[in-house]
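Final report, Chapter 2: Outcomes

The project's central promise was a pipeline that accepts a single protein chain and returns its three-dimensional structure in a standardized token representation, suitable for archiving and comparison. That pipeline is now operational. To close this chapter, we reproduce one record exactly as it appears in the project archive, with the input sequence first and the structure output second.
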Amino acid sequence: MSQSTRRFTLKALSAAAALGAFGLAAPAHAQNTIKVGILHSLSGTMAISETVLKDVALMAIDEINAKGGVLGKKLEPVVVDPASNWPLFAEKAKQLIDQDKVAAVFGCWTSVSRKSVLPVFEEKNSLLFYPVQYEGEELSKNVFYTGAAPNQQAIPAVEYLMSKDGGSAKRFVLLGTDYVYPRTTNKILRAFLKSKGVSDADIMEEYTPFGHSDYQTIIAKIKKFSSEGKKTAVVSTINGDSNVPFYKELGNQGIKAKDVPVVAFSVGEEELRGVDTKPLVGHLAAWNYFMSIKNPTNAAFIKKWSDYAKAKNIAGHKDRPLTNDPMEATYIGINMWAQAVKKAGTTDTDKVIAAMAGQTFPAPGGFMSTMDKQNHHLHKPVFIGEIKADGQFNVVWKTKGPVVADPWSDYIPENKGKANVPTKK
């Protein structure tokens, strides 16, 4: 952040403090409700993944309101559609904060959308809860990251592929959508693979634009690359609706998991809904939650979602309700924020940030979810699941317990010495 921007932010904070001193509370405090923003793409290429996060956020808000709300007030959701348009995310974030006077925002999926809104939340000292795995290399005072950092998903997944149980892969295809999350994740994975003795000649890297639909040529290249003598695995950071034609082409060209396993970081139960999963049995996904996990907390979460989806007539879910990792992360984030507001006794950003440290919530994934006291990330278990014929996942590997996030990857040389503590703005 530049010196001028820092001075501007400090001025804004000082002005806000002065208003408080004169008893001029923000409108969100003075109303009969507390407004919260929901910032997810309900149209465009990312709607396949994000729409359901809007719905589970509304479910969580309804639950909190049914228990009396927060600080004696009901939560009032303000839903906007940035339409998979990255600059529009920033405009909608400004609208939520300046016009709607929301106390916090829950939203974004892609890292490019998060990067678009980040300056808005920092300048206005407002709060974003971000519920999706990402590339790390960022730590903001104004963001709580309830999805996975690379050491809570990408690194364990590749370690698994290299293990005997995972097939002892020696060559890797890094295949992603062309934007910051796949490129930075693959930069980290390249450095990790190099540290394990994998040469550049044994790594193939390919990117496609958002909304890409023709994977015939790329799948053919993967087949050729994998035929050159060493066990090959594909690491997919494809996002959004491109996953449907990718997996269809994988099936069309007969790439089976036993020959060339694919592990995906952005494909869960929801993305597989529109795909014939029978040819994909045995391919993998790495997440911090799967619907198929058996425990009482998850059973209750699935039932709540099923009942809600039927009651609200949610498209696709009223007949076949599915839960997934970003839904769990959204649900945890909203509940933790509500707990922090109650603890702080106010929706004031800085006081809520302080109250978020160490918050816990029983996660459907089976462990008590804990917000790190310093780095604004959840401690999360890691699961690797195999695709089943019914579109669910069979967990084949998991960590013994929650993993502490490492936002600044140790495999990137310039990160050495960086503290995993949010920068004060």
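Archive annotation: The radius of gyration is 21 Å.
This record, like all others produced under the grant, will remain available to the consortium after the project formally closes.
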